[in-house]
Write a structure and sequence with these properties.
By secondary structure, the chain is of the alpha+beta class. It has 21 helices and eleven strands.
Length: 533
């Protein structure tokens, strides 16, 4: 008999309290009211506060709590803006070490998804290997063969994993709310928002059709990148719970000895790795955010083959421009410019003391750039930079965290392939060329035109907004009070926006001085009216 959900949840919370208490974190469990009479007794007899090896104990706790909590710990390992560096580094050791699902469960999921038998007469596949070639917390992979002889890899979502994850997410949301309530001094960590971010990511991984869409988009984006490809998706054999792609064969990219023995040029592979990173991040703004050596193979022809596209990162063109400028400033060791770029990008507040921020960047960057060229790590630089965010009130940028995680892997792969080569020196000409095009005069003009288009679109929507407000007034849903009139502020905002758009257009098209003077006058008048209230 299955217990009611509230009883199961309370039993789960009791187990979490017990695991925390027995790993030196009873004080944490007591303060969060996790069955505190029992936990208090454990704390009393153990007599410990926080363990000295806090990171290792947190890792052990997450491992005992299961796959969802392990994935949560893996996500937290990139958040040095939230955790001490030593704890974050310890959480990087977390692995999805889970047993494979029984074959009968795999067969049931596939047959339910396609309404067909797995094999035999009229079956979906001609041959299906019962033993998986890989197993992770959400899905596992089996090899199979189609009726036309094509060999494929089939990724199957674990049976009932969706319910398990939703149940665990409910527990995590409750724990985050308790933490936020009983640890007010740590409100800056924004625990509920962190769980929301994690929930979005892990739910996205559950949809294998979405992963198939990511895969096909990468295939299109990388068609012109020499020596890099992704497996073909077989859409007729793909559903939300099942993803079928062409089967690839090759060597993991971090096995240098095996690659050399197979006749591959490791330096060339390193160059292709740099080109892959540059293209996906800067050209496409769409990058693989779950890069690790197990997802990067080298086939017999020497091509790099990427797999597993459950998590992707996205960067708009404005973010790419700022990141390129920031990277170039760091590579030139121009820390003042690096600090200014952070302010211009809005990563830190406008009132940030540039000189103090420059010193903070020097503090973390100079030791890194004093190393031999091959040991310089931009990923480590970004990681250290995230650690000083609290001091300068830097808002967390989720996409930058994903990018840093990808950088760590790419740097590690490059060192495995050619330990005397730095991937950033290989990528620097590519980034510099891209930056010249997108940050130089042409790029700035294009950015200005984009801004003008944005302003013009806002102006074109203005009649609709006015009509909507008038409709609300007619319906009586707008309450008028005796507050001072906001008309000057509204008119001022319109004049300010219009003047800015006109001035931007005039600058981009080298308009006459009188035109620019009129546009500037409108902006000044708008500013005065806006501030007049």
């Amino acid at each position: 008999m299955r217990l009611p959900s509230n009883i199961r949840r309370n039993l789960r919370l009791m187990r979490i309290g017990h695991i925390l208490a027995t790993h030196g974190m009873a004080a944490l469990a007591v303060r969060m009211r996790l069955f505190h009479p029992y936990v208090w007794l454990v704390q009393l007899f153990r007599g410990d506060e926080l363990p000295k090896d806090l990171g290792a104990q947190i890792r052990l706790v997450l491992e005992q709590l299961g796959p969802t909590f392990i994935k949560f710990g893996q996500m937290l390992s990139t958040r040095v803006d939230l955790l001490p560096m030593d704890v974050a580094l310890e959480l990087k050791k977390l692995q999805d070490d889970v047993p494979a699902e029984p074959f009968e469960s795999v067969k049931r999921v596939i047959e339910k998804s396609f309404k067909k038998p797995l094999t035999s007469d009229g079956g979906l596949f001609a041959v299906f290997d019962e033993m998986p070639v890989a197993a992770a917390s959400i899905a596992q992979v089996h090899f199979a063969e189609l009726h036309d002889g094509r060999r494929v890899a089939v990724k199957i979502r674990r049976d009932h994993i969706s319910k398990t994850i939703e149940s665990d997410l409910a527990i995590l949301n409750l724990l985050a709310a308790l933490f936020d309530r009983y640890f007010p001094e740590y409100h800056r960590l924004k625990a509920p928002q962190v769980i929301d971010e994690f929930s979005t990511t892990i739910r996205g991984e559950l949809n294998l059709r979405a992963e198939a869409a990511h895969c096909t988009r990468f295939a299109e984006n990388l068609v012109d990148v020499e020596g890099v490809r992704v497996p073909e998706v077989l859409w007729d054999y793909t559903q939300t719970e099942v993803l079928t792609t062409e089967r690839i064969s090759g060597l993991p990219i971090d096995e240098r000895k095996a690659l050399t023995e197979a006749g591959h040029d490791c330096l060339k592979l390193c160059e292709r790795t740099a080109a892959l990173f540059f293209h996906t991040v800067f050209v496409d703004g769409y990058f693989h955010a779950d890069m690790h050596p197990g997802n990067i193979f080298v086939d017999a022809s020497g091509e790099i083959v990427l797999i597993d596209f459950g998590i992707v990162g996205r960067l708009d063109i404005k973010s790419r421009r700022y990141i390129a400028e920031m990277l170039i400033a760091f590579l030139k060791e121009d820390y003042k410019r690096a600090a200014e770029v952070h302010v211009e990008a809005g990563y830190v507040p406008l009132d940030t003391n540039i000189s103090a921020f420059e010193d903070a960047l020097r503090e973390i960057a100079v030791p890194i750039f004093n190393r031999p060229l091959a040991d310089i790590s931009i990923a480590e630089l970004l990681l250290s930079m995230f650690a000083v965010t609290e001091r300068f009130k830097m808002e967390t940028q989720p996409e930058l965290l994903l990018l840093q995680k990808t950088m760590v892997v790419m740097e590690g792969v490059a060192r495995e392939l050619a330990n005397d080569v730095n991937i950033w020196m290989l990528a620097r000409p590519l980034i510099s060329e891209w930056a010249t095009r997108h940050i130089g005069p042409i790029g700035k003009t294009e950015a200005l035109i984009e801004e003008v288009h944005g302003q013009l679109r806002s102006w074109m929507r203005l009649p609709e907004k006015i009509d909507a407000v008038l409709s609300r007034i007619e319906e009586g849903s707008v309450n008028f009070t005796a507050e001072p009139s906001r008309l000057p502020v509204v008119v001022g905002s319109v004049l300010l926006a219009g003047g800015a758009a006109w001035l931007a257009w005039s600058t981009a098209h080298d308009a006459a001085g009188f035109t620019m003077l009129v546009a500037s006058s409108l902006m000044v008048l708008g500013l005065v009216l806006t501030l007049s209230r």
